[in-house]
Amino acid sequence: MQDNYQQKILGIIGGGQLGRMVIQSAINYNIDIHILDPDENAPCRHICHDFSHGKLTDYDTVYAFGKGCDVITIEIENVNTEALEQLAKEGKKVFPQPEIIRLIQDKREQKQFYKENNIPTADFILTDSKADVLANADFLPAVNKLGKEGYDGRGVQVLKSEEDLDKAFEAPGLLEKLIDFDKEIAVIVSRNEHGELVAFPPVECAFHPTANLVEFLFAPAQISDEIGEEAIKVAKDVIIKLDMIGILAVEMFVTKSGEILVNEIAPRPHNSGHHTIEANFTSQFEQHLRAVMGMPLGNTGLRMPAAMVNLLGEDGFTGDAVVEGMDEAMKEKGIFIHLYGKKITKPFRKMGHVTILEENVEALKAKALKVKDSIKIKA
Amino acid sequence: MQDNYQQKILGIIGGGQLGRMVIQSAINYNIDIHILDPDENAPCRHICHDFSHGKLTDYDTVYAFGKGCDVITIEIENVNTEALEQLAKEGKKVFPQPEIIRLIQDKREQKQFYKENNIPTADFILTDSKADVLANADFLPAVNKLGKEGYDGRGVQVLKSEEDLDKAFEAPGLLEKLIDFDKEIAVIVSRNEHGELVAFPPVECAFHPTANLVEFLFAPAQISDEIGEEAIKVAKDVIIKLDMIGILAVEMFVTKSGEILVNEIAPRPHNSGHHTIEANFTSQFEQHLRAVMGMPLGNTGLRMPAAMVNLLGEDGFTGDAVVEGMDEAMKEKGIFIHLYGKKITKPFRKMGHVTILEENVEALKAKALKVKDSIKIKA
């Protein structure tokens, strides 16, 4: 049998850090990557075979870009799905499928999908306006989420009591019961056209208190085997019910009573899987590539306990990025720095991440804290 | 302290697979890489910041290329060292230093360097011509090596008895006593401007019987601790006596009496270190980058026993490369395929490599053999 993966061009809509890490994997398989991004200096700019500069939400731009590729995928959900649908109709492979991207673009549809498919999730009500939220004050404490265009912590507002109600969104969104969870975990699953379905071991996420971004991640999650198996089962159930090809990150709450509730899903490589580059036998980026290109899926076993720390732009600094304090970290065993090639830093912008490997889980947490305190992105 | 590695441009003379794997590491540090290569379709072509097409042995080409960089390194020894010397004089950082590259370009000078510096090596005599070799027939069995331009198995001839004498080289070279060795091992050492000096654990090489190329590599080498420590001591001694900055691969024989003899050295990432990408905490490619850029050197500990198999072009096939039999290997745990992006295959051309990780050393050898038998590069 001839393996002709290398004869196919993979187009990625979006050229940020996720695309960049996919390219780092694709180099090993001689797969030519074309990138579309609105930023001339996108992280993928210099390491892809072909770079197109254009708007991801514009039909003509996305369609023209896709025509030059054999397989098309995304690294961000906010893209023109009509163009992707047309490309799929014309015989291009588009993974994740356009209708799934459209579903995930709207958190309201996402929640309804869970409900219709018996996927456990927090109770919710759809709201069309601020007035609608106010009228449902008895549903608090809750999280008010914008239906569309929330990203990286934007479009999410916790409403603990009526005093918070003035923060409610005016646009269509939803109110979700605030879950007094024990842990937040994530499971990444992937599925290819040949029906293979593989899950990564669950990881545990710790969020930044104000920026609503993953601040630390630990693998494996400190949960019981039963909860771990249940989380994998739920994540597999989601990708099967979506009938999706590609990689899907499923973020879940573990409630204090041990219940699993799906929080959010992302049909692409995800922040909760960055550690897999060094910590697992197959990285999420390679797995994504394998899934969309129709290659066999790889083994997802964890090689060593790992932590991941996002390197966010320091609050108060905007401008040409300067990384401080890397030297100490570089000397340590098992510390892996990834900078994303973004010229400009802004408060809380994702500028890079660090993976820490360490057999001893206590030492792992201490090292992760130390890395977070020593490496700073300023301007 | 500000870490300004990212503000420096690294130029690599040569854009083959070694440069390609350096770039894969450099992406993590936002280091811009410029490449010079005579092949328009060199493996680094599409993944570097700037690609110059030109002859590596031409003074003007190398000089002009180097002027646009801050730090200059090599991935092949056959380069114009006069241009590099001029660049160093003008304040560019050139690592390895030009005089070391020149020394290593000539195996005769290399051997004399060992002798003058008490570095253990096989006995030898310099020969200027075929007639010279014939006149020294009593030195057989020996290896006849060309002084210059031997590479990837070319320029080396085993002369077991007088019957082999017609294979002797006509050009200046040397005759080296044929060593009835127990094992061939290699130690990669690296050294930066700050005086840091770090060794990778010794590995064991098994050569292809006719092509004189590494066919299998195993890490760790199956040698005693004493021999391992001695090998590291010898390798460190070589880089110190060369006063070299960068990464140096030291290939050695372990004789049946347990003696260590230096065979060849290479002042760049080397085939005997490819497994380090997945098997060690720091890869040789990242270590090379760290050493030449003046970054702290990384921990070289082995994470897991590893084997490495070169994917050589099948004998009898020349033309557009087609990889066969990848699927089975991709399904297995701990198998990592690296293709080098070379369009054209030729018999025994290095087209890629596979690293195999496995705790059980016996299983490791079996898996390495299986990979070698299943993945084929044809045309």
Automatic annotation (TrEMBL), chains A, B:
Keyword Signal: no
InterPro entries reported in the protein's UniProt record: ATP-grasp, ATP-grasp_carboxylate-amine, ATP_grasp_subdomain_1, PreATP-grasp_dom_sf, PurK, PurK_C, PurT/PurK_preATP-grasp, Rudment_hybrid_motif
GO molecular function, one term: 5-(carboxyamino)imidazole ribonucleotide synthase activity
The keyword Ligase is assigned to this record: yes
GO biological process: 'de novo' IMP biosynthetic process
Reactions that this protein is recorded to catalyse: 5-amino-1-(5-phospho-beta-D-ribosyl)imidazole + hydrogencarbonate + ATP = 5-carboxyamino-1-(5-phospho-D-ribosyl)imidazole + ADP + phosphate + 2 H(+)
Binding site for ATP: K107, K145, E176, K177, L178, I179, E184, N263, E264
Pathway(s) it belongs to: Purine metabolism; IMP biosynthesis via de novo pathway; 5-amino-1-(5-phospho-D-ribosyl)imidazole-4-carboxylate from 5-amino-1-(5-phospho-D-ribosyl)imidazole (N5-CAIR route): step 1/2
Quaternary assembly: Homodimer.
Summary of the function given for this chain in its UniProt record: Catalyzes the ATP-dependent conversion of 5-aminoimidazole ribonucleotide (AIR) and HCO(3)(-) to N5-carboxyaminoimidazole ribonucleotide (N5-CAIR). Catalyzes the ATP-dependent conversion of 5-aminoimidazole ribonucleotide (AIR) and HCO(3)- to N5-carboxyaminoimidazole ribonucleotide (N5-CAIR).
PANTHER family for this protein: PHOSPHORIBOSYLAMINOIMIDAZOLE CARBOXYLASE, PURINE BIOSYNTHESIS PROTEIN 6/7, PUR6/7
Annotated protein name in UniProt: N5-carboxyaminoimidazole ribonucleotide synthase
Annotated organism of origin: Echinicola soli
Encoding gene (name): purK
